Amino acid sequence: MAEIVIRNLCKQFGAFTAVRSSSFKIEDGEFFMLLGPSGCGKTTTLRMIAGLELPTSGEIWIDGEEVGQKPASERDIAFVFQMFALYPHMNVRRNISYPLVSQGMPRSQVRARVGEIARILGIEGILDRPVGGLSGGDRQRVALGRAIVRNPKAFMMDEPLGALDAEFREHMSQELRALHDRMGATTVYVTHDQLEAMQMGDKIVVMNHGVVEQFGTPRDIYDKPATMFVADFIGSPAMNFLHFHGAVRPGADRVSVHHQALPIPAAREAFEGDIVYGVRPEFIRLSDSAGYRGRVRAAEYLGTTQIVTIETPNGEAKARIPSDQPARPGDMVGLAFEGATVTLFDAQSGRALR
Ligand code: ATP
């Protein structure tokens, strides 16, 4: 088990900076997600923690020891790749026992340990089968078995479910999370799928262009996005951004947008300039009595709810409302908001105003 602390971590490839002064802390036993779009530096960060890539500068602490410049072999970390490389000519038992046999563990101990791992993964019945003919899920379990059999301090997983189809992926992600909860080993997991990160992670780091945009629990990140990038990347449909020019007074719980006093969470800092009123689709209500109005452009039926696209004076907004509530293209509707669910951003820097 391991606590991992990352301090001001940087990685340059020639003149290109792939990771820029990242800092975050992974608690012992956490299921920790590195989330962001393609090329943002997730894999490079993971590889630096595992020791497969050395940092240009910064520190990596594992269990109180700074290991940034140490080779992978001295870190006791298991890496689970997307293209899990199994030995196709060996059976399941030999694939899983291979790391122990190559360490010189006595046969009886190897047998006992492999039996225990097979029980945890529910693959006792296929131990003597060759891996060549196994289904994708069973191959994934065998690959996990081989990674966990050594009982490493922590697991690094780089989009381990990326090659699976959607339905199976959902199933395996639940299985992985349940396995983690049984074993309790610190796990760092790379994904570009925000839903996967929200469902599986205890904590999430959101990265963009090599920079940590935010670090927190899924709830923190969803409810209190630190930047417009995070607000836009997490949630589907994404958070609405209504643009206006105005001022926020310290302690105010309203802000004037297009001649209406719209609710905001009580503000602490004063701000004047280009502001974005950020509100998630599920927190907009349509109400005849609301003074802030817009015209319905489209309604997309989703079963119990519908997504209604509304042209407002400050840009387009999507509202997720019950599908039995009438909203036809062309209708003028009032939009009602609740202050506690709103985030204001400085439009220029993209940072949340708190
Ligand atoms: P993806 O999901 O596409 O793998 P990622 O967030 O994991 O994206 P990284 O693989 O960490 O991103 O790459 C970050 C950036 O660093 C990319 O622009 C990539 O091209 C670059 N990069 C990664 N490895 C190297 C390398 N060995 N040499 C040069 N550039 C690299």
Automatic annotation (TrEMBL):
The keyword Transport applies. One of its GO terms (molecular function) is ATP binding. Keywords: ATP-binding, Cell membrane, Membrane, Nucleotide-binding, Translocase, Transport. InterPro entries: AAA+_ATPase (IPR003593), ABC_transporter-like_ATP-bd (IPR003439), ABC_transporter-like_CS (IPR017871), ABC_transpr_MalK/UgpC-like (IPR047641), Mo/tungstate-bd_C_term_dom (IPR008995), NA-bd_OB-fold (IPR012340), P-loop_NTPase (IPR027417), Transp-assoc_OB_typ2 (IPR013611). Residues 4-234 form the ABC transporter domain. Pfam families: ABC_tran, TOBE_2. The keyword Signal does not apply. PROSITE patterns: ABC_TRANSPORTER_1 (PS00211), ABC_TRANSPORTER_2 (PS50893). Belongs to the ABC transporter superfamily. This is ABC transporter ATP-binding protein.
